[in-house]
Specification:
- This is Zinc-dependent peptidase.
- This protein is an alpha/beta fold and about 260 residues long.
- It has eleven helices and six strands.
- The protein has one domain: Collagenase (Catalytic Domain) (3-Layer(aba) Sandwich).
- The N terminus and C terminus are likely disordered.
Length: about 260
């Protein structure tokens, strides 16, 4: 019995000496209650047991790095179900920004190919790709979190395509979601077209899928900024993620995006 128990403890990824200190040092996780912390750890155990981690170009995968990724990835599904991430099984970590070559379709329907240097990517064919330098600094409270961004895309893809309209829970109204997100997306684009300063990262204006992913970052990192800018969207995300970061995180002074940053 003692040997079996000892083996179980050794196999628990959260029994690593760096946890829970790694988590306690993440500003992103501040304010979690004891019950929430226990649920986060349960989600992390499931995540680490069901996701394969690969290091691209020989990048070393330490237990601490796995824990840092898992903690961020599991925060959005804290009050959801482990099956929310069941349709993908791999996390690939790169030592630096990586190049992706993907086709894209222009306004008239012509298909092009291009290369982009990326910090992260959620691929329709399975894995999440992350550049470690960006993933490592993501837990800071600045409205930018590549892990949450890509995980939001994965939740969005549960309806078959990433379009900013993930499957809603029972009790949520399609009309309410559509009204809030369409109005917010139109408002952000209108402000950017006018050259105005905005509270939200302009990358959110790329398309509805990026709008959902970027605003998910703000929801978990700068909830008060998002609530002030788009309270109806905040309410929809509160219902979707079944949690309220604004109730656990203190307001943070965050400068708006200036015109210089938009060019």
């Amino acid at each position: 019995m003692w040997n079996l128990l000892r083996r179980h403890v050794a196999e628990d990824p959260l029994a690593h000496r760096s946890w829970p200190e790694v988590g306690r040092q993440m500003p992103l996780l501040q304010g979690l209650s004891t019950d929430e912390w226990q649920r986060l750890e349960a989600r992390m155990r499931h995540f680490l047991a069901h996701k394969t981690f690969h290091g691209a170009h020989g990048f070393a995968l330490s237990s601490t790095r796995r824990l840092q990724i898992a903690a961020q990835a599991c925060l959005p599904i804290l009050n959801l179900d482990d099956n929310a991430y069941a349709d993908w099984h791999e996390v690939v970590l790169y030592p630096r920004a990586f190049v992706s070559r993907d086709p894209w379709r222009d306004e008239v329907g012509l298909v092009h190919e291009g290369e982009w240097a990326l910090a992260g990517q959620a691929r329709h064919d399975g894995p999440i790709l992350l550049a470690w330098p960006d993933a490592r600094r993501s837990p800071e409270i600045d409205g930018w979190n590549v892990v949450i961004h890509e995980c939001a895309h994965k939740l969005d893809m549960l309806n078959g395509s990433a379009n900013g309209f993930p499957p809603l829970h029972a009790g949520m109204q399609v009309a309410d979601w559509t009204r809030a997100f369409e109005a917010g997306f139109a408002d952000l684009n209108r402000r950017l077209d006018r050259g105005e300063t905005v509270a939200i990262d302009p990358y959110a204006a790329e398309n509805p899928a990026e709008f959902f992913a970027v605003l998910s970052e703000y929801f978990f990192e700068l909830p008060h900024v998002l609530h002030d800018a788009y309270p109806a969207i905040y309410e929809q995300l509160r219902q979707f993620y079944r949690q309220d970061p604004g109730a656990r995180l203190a307001p943070v002074e965050h400068p708006p995006w200036s015109e210089d940053e938009l060019t």
